[in-house]
Write a structure and sequence with these properties.
eight-stranded mixed β-sheet; 12% strand; 8 strands; 11 helices; alpha/beta; Rossmann fold
Length: 379
């Protein structure tokens, strides 16, 4: 798969570190489809009940494309045993033991709408979030994995929001000034208020007790959505996410990455580096909130290094992906430490001895976490 070019070696000088960190964010979501725009059946198997919805967002003043598949038959209702302590790579999933309670509703703005409070009746769903270079026509999950196939007849509906390049699926302060964006990103509001209301009314999807899975750019976003909207998302997974955006190096890396991926201005997102929005959207900073919510977590990241899924990959691309994944691992281990210190015991941490920053690994993890997710949402 074609990918963006990145520097060829990791040094410890800050300029090079920032360049590589920026490439980490931009690499995973880039998916070039040879031969022009894909057809409706280019990714999902023909015959799957995949729908292409256009949901109007009042907060953004535009339609948002959403790929959707109903859950079909009821999912298994087995109930695993009690909760286990967080596991370290590559152990099995700890049993889901959702513990309600949760922190007080956030008062900081931007932060999106409050969690839905309607009746929990309706089908459960998993929201699959895209990466830095999310396209406006199809989700990267559909382009690069058979995710719809995996969740077909699982009892869990699949929701793939389309678009959101460089958005971090958050509520921005204002439109991006550098690329003259005509509207303000309000993704948290859309994902936690507008879209669930529409899905409840039109597709009978529950507004509570769902799951959210993110990769790379959206790994941290998935955790933050669960932190501030625990009623809506009782399950959250981060795959190769960057879980320390308020750290100085990551702030600068995000700035560079957003300029490269669409010419977006990070100042319009979370403001200046000292603005409280950065920590508000930092999973490590919000670990205690996530623990208090009792959210079931699945956290995956590798240290780099090629394995079987990389067979046949371009050597240069594999080297880049290996180096990039290696940079993501520290924030994941730092999150594990913060989570454990806060008393968290409802997470699975998967830190294998090798693996790259690439779709084959994220697809593997989605299939690995699927039984845990289904058990949690049906619990």
């Amino acid at each position: 798969m074609p990918r963006t070019s990145v520097v060829n070696a990791v040094h410890y000088r800050l300029p090079r570190l920032l360049a590589i960190a920026a490439a980490v964010l931009t690499l995973p979501a880039l998916a070039v489809v040879v031969g022009g725009a894909p057809n409706a059946n280019a990714f999902s198997r023909e015959g799957l009940p995949v729908e292409y919805l256009d949901v109007y967002s009042t907060s953004m003043g535009r339609n948002i494309r959403v790929q959707f598949q109903p859950g079909g038959a009821a999912a298994p209702t087995f109930s695993p045993g009690g909760a286990a302590a967080p596991t370290f790579s590559p152990g099995g999933a700890a049993a889901p033991t959702f513990s309600p309670g949760g922190a007080a509703a956030p008062t900081f703005s931007p932060g999106g709408a409050a969690a839905p409070t309607s009746s929990p009746s309706g089908a459960k769903a998993v929201y699959l979030l895209d990466g830095m270079r999310a396209q406006d026509d199809y989700s990267g999950w559909d382009i690069n994995t058979p995710a719809f196939e995996w969740f077909y007849q699982s009892g869990i509906s699949t929701v793939m929001p389309v678009g959101g390049q460089s958005s971090f699926y958050t509520d921005w302060y204002s439109p991006s000034s550098f690329n003259k964006q005509p509207y303000t990103y309000k993704w948290e509001t859309f994902l936690t208020s507008e879209l669930p209301l529409w899905l409840a009314a039109n597709k009978q999807i529950s507004m509570t007790g769902n799951g959210v899975v993110g990769l790379s750019m959206s790994g941290g976003a998935a955790l933050i959505l669960s932190a501030y909207h625990p009623a809506q998302f009782r399950y959250a997974a981060s795959l190769s996410g960057f879980l320390n955006p308020s750290a100085l190096v990551m702030q600068q890396a995000i700035r560079v990455a957003m300029l490269d991926a669409g010419g977006y201005n990070v100042d319009n997102m979370w403001g200046a580096p000292w603005d409280a929005a950065w920590k508000r959207n930092d999973p490590i900073q919000q670990a205690s909130r996530i623990v208090a919510n009792g959210t079931r977590l699945w956290i995956y990241c590798a240290p780099g290094g090629s394995t079987a899924p990389d067979d046949g990959a371009d050597p240069n691309q594999a080297f880049n992906a290996s180096s990039l994944e290696g940079m993501a691992i520290k924030s994941n281990k730092d999150f594990q430490e913060a989570y454990t210190k806060a008393g968290g015991n409802n997470a699975t941490f998967v830190f294998p001895p090798a693996g790259d920053h690439a779709w084959p690994y994220w697809g593997q993890q989605l299939t690995s976490l699927k039984p845990d997710l289904i058990a949690t949402l049906n619990g």
